[in-house]
Amino acid sequence: MWTTETPATLITFPKTQLKACGIVTLQVNTGYGCNQTCRHCHVAGGPERTEMLGVETIDTILGILKNYDIKTLDITGGAPELNPNLGYLIGKARKIVNRVIVRTNLTVLLEEAMLGFAAFYRDNGVELIASLPHYTQDMVDRVRGKGVFYKSIHVLRQLNEMGFGTGLLTLNLVYNPQGAFLPPSQHIIEEQFRSELFEKHSVRFDNLYTICNVPIGRFADFLRRSGNYGRYMERLASAFNLGTLDGVMCRRLVSVGWDGSLYDCDFNQAAQLKLDGDCPQHVRNFDYDVLAGREITTAPHCLACTAGQGSTCTGSTCADSTCSGSAPVLRDGNSMSSSG
Amino acid sequence: MSDYYNDEDLDRFGEVGKYNPELFRKFMDWYNASLKAGTLTKREKVLIGLAVAHTIQCPYCIDAYTRSCLEEGMGLDHMTEAVHVASAVRGGASLIHCLQAHNSVDKVSM
Prior knowledge:
heterodimer; A: alpha/beta; TIM Barrel; 10 helices; globular; B: mainly alpha; AhpD-like; about 65% helix; extended
């Protein structure tokens, strides 16, 4: 059990034999290039990043999708749209798997060379997961940059007009906390998002996913710079919830980095945390059976996925955020949810 | 000690129980039970906590309940409105005592 005496550097993920149970999703990172430099970005994406998924690796990925029963291709970045091979990947993959998801930052769709992507997504039945950390301008611009909120709203309205988020095509949004604190209950904040975005901006969407900020990359830099790192790690540790372990995404997903390297998730990829020793480390050595039953490599940042209601790339994993108590643990073993 | 209030002390709250663990445990049980969602939601309860924290002007409580409000998805707009309510009630409480002054004046005046 952690206590507030535990230095943040000593906080570790509890020793659980976390094992994969199949591969439902192949999550592919197309590179770290992005038109934004969000303050919480775990891959520290930005315009200066040049890492990019190439055609040769894409062909290997398509071969994997063809040969194995993997139902979902989940494409992330950076901004996937900035990879010139994205259209090729989606076009081919759409003929193989039932479900293709693209994680878009929305504003990239306003860049001149990217204007056709929304229609391309519509024509290929791509599901969109769009980042919008809050329904207010102040909160969004604070995290994602000045002017991002209204640009995002503009694109969301365009997507609605094309049928996304209206029952025809899927448009899900992602909430993440705007600082060093845990996300609220997914269903409560979803209802707020729905009414605020519709009443104030005529924007509709399907589901809202709450994702906990993972203490790596640019978010870890923020935590250290602002003196919040220790307390945030303690908050994650004290909110550890056994009930989330079944649903954590790494158990049913394999992550492919922009260079074809394999990881347990996009966060381990950003942290350069390799797969368990016996596993293939690159798409060209992909072995479904080994990967589908692998032991997950964990690190302290994994606590972000197991805190409170849990957090995955598709939102919370456990309706009961208090399965093992979500309150901080005090040094004498007592706990409290808010103190003063 | 250079400051009367240290934010690190918020995490040391458990030390209050050192010399009387039984009473502290009773307090903590009561405290945690009162904050659990019931007829009121957790969200409503932490907002009440924030308002009270400002009324009693406890920096530890303000710090703790501000975070709780953020974790319940509330922003500065919600929190500011709640603090205005607390401040207005507190202001009203002072103002109503003006009638005590009026009564006193009446008592001694011809």
